[in-house]
Amino acid sequence: MALTLVIGNKNYSSWSMRPWLALRASNIAFDEVFIPLYTGEADKKRILSFTHSGKVPALIDGDMTIWDSLSIIEYAAEKFPEARLWPEDRARRAHARSISAEMHSGFAALRNECGMNLHRPVGAIALSADARADIARVHQIWTECRERYGKSGPFLFGAFSGADAMFAPVVHRFRTYAIAVGPEAKAYMDTVMALPAFQEWTRAGLAETLVIEKFETV
Ligand SMILES: N[C@@H](CCC(=O)N[C@@H](CS)C(=O)NCC(=O)O)C(=O)O
């Protein structure tokens, strides 16, 4: 039975983008259910009909529901080991999981101040010290990965992995808010932006016309 991934607006939903990208970039087939976010009760009820979390993304596999972006990536990695969503080497895998969990549980200032909005014209804004610290930490994570694993390929751990999917929305944030990066981070961002699955998501997001006012503040 085909997998179904329930997602929100491609223009805004950074959480939806992560598992979508992990599945698509790994050539794992899935059907997509799109539910527009923050439109009112009817759409919220549709989300709740798939997952009691009331949030997207959610993956439906037969009678199972897996919600939360990182859990979906973990599930896909287990179900499709040939996709190699986590590095084979245990130390690399632990590193990939550490930065993915760090991304998942942190970076609140960066998320709040630089929301993903593909339509937003590129331009810098004034950022708080906390957001600047988040940016410095992302930069450090990317640079360290590239220095350690760059010989095995252009992604964080050489080949594409779940960690790249977790950081892909940040690539959009850095691009949109014109955040200055060093050469290693720039090369990594270019690699992610050249990924066909990333481009497919971005094209679809840019084609959307729905506007979520609360995400249009900057
Ligand atoms: N921790 C969750 C967060 C999911 C989340 O916050 N999703 C937002 C959209 S990006 C959502 O569904 N909001 C709709 C709502 O709260 O009504 C994950 O990683 O999947």
Give a short synopsis of this structure.
By secondary structure, the chain is α+β, with helices and mostly antiparallel strands.
Written overview of the protein:
The chain is α+β, with helices and mostly antiparallel strands and 218 residues long. The protein has helices spanning 14-25, 41-50, 69-79, 90-105, 108-113, 129-149, 162-176, 183-194, 196-207, and strands at 3-7, 30-34, 58-61, 64-67. It has a 4-stranded mixed β-sheet with strand order 2-1-3-4. Helix 1 crosses helix 7. It is globular, with a radius of gyration of 17 Å. The protein starts with a strand and ends in an 11-residue tail after the last helix. The structure holds glutathione. Glutathione binds at residues 8, 13, 15-16, 37, 44, 54-57, 68-69.
Could you name the key traits of this structure?
single chain, 218 residues, alpha+beta, 9 helices, 4 strands, 8% strand, binds glutathione
Outline the biggest β-sheet: 4 strands, mixed
**How many β strands by DSSP?**
4
**Spatial sequence of strands, sheet with the most strands:** 2-1-3-4
- Give the H and E element order: EHEHEEHHHHHHH
Bound molecules: glutathione
Structural class: alpha+beta
Shape: globular
Q: Look at the structure and give the mean pLDDT.
A: 97
Q: Give the fraction of residues assigned to helices.
A: 40-55%
* Count of helical stretches: 9
Rg over CA atoms, rounded to whole Å, is 17 Å
Range of strand content: 5-15%
Report the span from N to C terminus.
43 Å
Q: What are the segments in which pLDDT stays under 50 over at least 5 consecutive residues?
A: none
